C-alpha cells in the first residue's frame, strides 16, 4: 500500500519542482503563467470533471452510504474551520487558502491509489467519491471566497452569480446531470474532453511550482500546519466516524478514508488566483501537503482501515 501511494505522489512532486525551475530559469515568459492558470480554471479542469462524472461505472457501488459519508465529513471539517477562524488570526485571503487546504483533495492521487488498491472497482469508487465531493467542496469554497476573499463581499445576487457561473461547479452539475439522465457524451466530444482533462493535471501542478516563493516560507508555517491538521487528522477522523455510524465498510469505506486523507489539489491554487485568495500561500500549502502525504496517507489507511473492516 505504501509503495502504491508513494508512486502516485512522486510525479506530482516532480511536476511541482519542474514548474518552480521553469519559472526561476525564465524558460517561459512571465505572461505565460497567468494565461496557463486561466486556461486550467475555465477549460481544462471543467473538462476533467464532466468527463470523469459522466463516464463513471457505478454498478454494485453503495452510492448512498458512500456519498453521505463523504459529504458529511466534508461539511463537519468545513464547519470546524469556520468556527475556529477567529482564533487563527489570519487575514481573509489567507483563511481562504487554509480552508481550501483543509477540504479540497487531489483527484489524480485519489484515482491512482484507488486503482492500485482495488483495480476496476477502485476506479468506480473513485468516480463516486469525485461526484460527491467535487461539487460539495467547490460550492463551499466559492462561498468562503465570497465572504473572506480579497475581491470583497458580493451581494446576494452577486453570490448567486458566482455559483451559477463558476466553471467547476457548472462542470460538476453538468456531469452529474448527464449521468443521471443516462445521456452520456457524444462519440466525438468524449475523447476531446478526456484529452483536455488529462492536460489539466500536469499544467496545474506546473503552475503550483511556478507560484512557490520560498522567501516568504516563514509566514507559511502556522497556516500550513492548520490546513494540514484539518486535512490529515480532522478529515480522516470525521470520515471514520461517519463510516462507523452509517455502517460503511470494505473497499467503499477504504476509498472514503483514502479520498479524505488526500493532499489538497493543484486546482486550489488556480481558484485562489482567480477568486482573490492568497495564491502564494495556497501554493505553499499544496507543495507541503503533497510531500507530507507520502507519510500521512499510509499511516491513516493502515491505522484506520481495520476499524471499518
Stated plainly, the CATH topology is called: Na+/H+ antiporter like fold
Largest sheet: none
Number of separate helices: 12
The low-confidence runs, each spanning 5 or more residues with pLDDT under 50, are none
CATH class: Mainly Alpha
Instruction: Report the span from N to C terminus.
Output: 16 Å
Structural class, by secondary structure, is mainly alpha
Our count of domains comes out at 1
In the CATH hierarchy, the architecture is Up-down Bundle
What pattern of helices and strands is seen along the backbone? HHHHHHHHHHHH
Summary, kept brief:
The protein has 309 residues and is mostly helical. Helix content is 82%, strand content 0%.
Explained architecture:
It holds the Pfam family Mem_trans. InterPro entries: Mem_transp_PIN-like (IPR004776), Na+/solute_symporter_sf (IPR038770). By secondary structure, this protein is mainly α. It has one domain (36-303): Na+/H+ antiporter like fold (Up-down Bundle), CATH 1.20.1530.20. The protein has helices at residues 2-25, 32-54, 63-88, 92-103, 107-148, 156-165, 167-181, 189-211, 221-246, 250-260, 266-275, 279-308. The longest helix is centred in the middle third of the chain and has 42 residues, at 107-148. The two termini are 16 Å apart. 51% of the residues are buried. The mean pLDDT is 84.
Amino acid at each position: 500500500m505504501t509503495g502504491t501511494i508513494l508512486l502516485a505522489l512522486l510525479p506530482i512532486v516532480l511536476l511541482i519542482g519542474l514548474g518552480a525551475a521553469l519559472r526561476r530559469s525564465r524558460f517561459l515568459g512571465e505572461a505565460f503563467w497567468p494565461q496557463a492558470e486561466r486556461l486550467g480554471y475555465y477549460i481544462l479542469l471543467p473538462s476533467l470533471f464532466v468527463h470523469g462524472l459522466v463516464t463513471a461505472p457505478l454498478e454494485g457501488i453503495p452510492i448512498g452510504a458512500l456519498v453521505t459519508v463523504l459529504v458529511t465529513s466534508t461539511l463537519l471539517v468545513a464547519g470546524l474551520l469556520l468556527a475556529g477562524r477567529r482564533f487563527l488570526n489570519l487575514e481573509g485571503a489567507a483563511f481562504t487558502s487554509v480552508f481550501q487546504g483543509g477540504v479540497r483533495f487531489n483527484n489524480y492521487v485519489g484515482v491512482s491509489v484507488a486503482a492500485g488498491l482495488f483495480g476496476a472497482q477502485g476506479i468506480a469508487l473513485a468516480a463516486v467519491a469525485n461526484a460527491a465531493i467535487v461539487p460539495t467542496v467547490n460550492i463551499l469554497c466559492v462561498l468562503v471566497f465570497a465572504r473572506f476573499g480579497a475581491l470583497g463581499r458580493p451581494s446576494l445576487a452577486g453570490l448567486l452569480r458566482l455559483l451559477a457561473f463558476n466553471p467547476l461547479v457548472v462542470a460538476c452539475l453538468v456531469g452529474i446531470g448527464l449521468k443521471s439522465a443516462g445521456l452520456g457524451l457524444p462519440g466525438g466530444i468524449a475523447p476531446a474532453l478526456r484529452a483536455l482533462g488529462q492536460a489539466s493535471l500536469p499544467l496545474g501542478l506546473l503552475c503550483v511550482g511556478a507560484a512557490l516563493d520560498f522567501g516568504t516560507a516563514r509566514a507559511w508555517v502556522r497556516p500550513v500546519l492548520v490546513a494540514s491538521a484539518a486535512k490529515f487528522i480532522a478529515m480522516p477522523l470525521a470520515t471514520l466516524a461517519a463510516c462507523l455510524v452509517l455502517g460503511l465498510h470494505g473497499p467503499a469505506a477504504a476509498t472514503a478514508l483514502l479520498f479524505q486523507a488526500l493532499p489538497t489539489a493543484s486546482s486550489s491554487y488556480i481558484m485562489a488566483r482567480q477568486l482573490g485568495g492568497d495564491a502564494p500561500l495556497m501554493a505553499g500549502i499544496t507543495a507541503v501537503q503533497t510531500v507530507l502525504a507520502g507519510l500521512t496517507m499510509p499511516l491513516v489507511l493502515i491505522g484506520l482501515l481495520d476499524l471499518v473492516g
